[in-house]
Specification:
The protein has helices spanning about 10-30, 40-70, 80-110, 140-160, 170-195, 200-205, 210-230, 230-235, 240-260, 265-285, 285-290, 300-325, 335-370. By secondary structure, it is mainly α. The protein has one domain. The two termini are about 15 Å apart.
Amino acid sequence: MQPPTFSRLLGLDCLRALAISLVLVSHITFLLFPDSTSTLIDGFRILGAIGVDLFFVLSGYLIGGILLKIINTDDLKWSALFKFWKRRWLRTLPNYFLVLCLNIIVAFLVGILIPKELFQYSLFIQNFSWGHPDFFTEAWSLSIEEYAYLLLPFLIFFLIISFKNKNKPFLFLLSTVIVIMVLTGLKLSYNFNASVENYHDWSLSFRKVVIYRMDSIYYGFIAVFFMKKFPTYFEYNKNIFLIAGLVVFAVLHVIIYVFNLLPQSHLWFYVLVYLQMVAFSLMLLFPYFLHLRRTIFGKKIVEFISTRSYAIYLVNYSLVLLNIELLVNLKVLGPIEKTLIVLLFLFVTTVVSNVIYLYFERPILKLRDRRFPR
């Protein structure tokens, strides 16, 4: 028996394509302007962080939606949670370990030192409560996602199974709020005890650390809860939410620029306000994108980028960009040569990602759907 097929949602493809495009634009600046630290270039580089935040919120929205469907079954059992985890692991782990192995092989070939913390990558603890090692740096976000998939779903199932015949959606929301509050307590501890000298220090010791960032995914749980509860309201006001999200995002960064808010001088802002407001502004975009109905120009390209986005994210920086920087002295190249390097970067990233998707990721997903159907 063949597993049922599911049609793709254009809005989700657009959000995934947007997220990975922001990451690529950010990384391209390191090829075009290797020595530049101007405000404009720094702004483009921050887009990569925004792209990852969009992936986080989108992941939370999708996972939260799946959990809402699961918990509404009449006789909820722990086996449903185990099946959820198995589907998640078959979605995320194979690509992760494949690219980790490729990074190790390339490191041996080019003479890069393998970090002593390598064993931690197998348990996703290399950045659990400390900075991520300088190896396969994209892995920091995967650690956050894997632990986010464990913590809150377990609490949701525990509360619902423990309090039978109670309001399941309410317990879903309550669990989410409780976990976010606990994680905020950890952020407060960081704020009062940490000392950073620049954005890089803050990013390494806070933005890319599991225990401080899981809430970025859980904001997606809140978004899906309210959008499922009040679907007509959000569809009717989708354009207003879109404008509001763009305004919030723009105003937030204008305030940072005008008042020169830096992590070393306004740590509280970057710990307790900035990332939360970024996630909130991104959430406001969802009603518009998720209610896209008409075909857009370049739909096939958007779908291509979306389906390969996970592979693109894993390979574009450590496997492709860093090795280009290792082989080519970008500082001596002119504009034409740098443009060609960028095209090479995009071409190699696309080819490698496409091969991984077609001959590794997609077959595993088909196997997953046969073994553990929705």
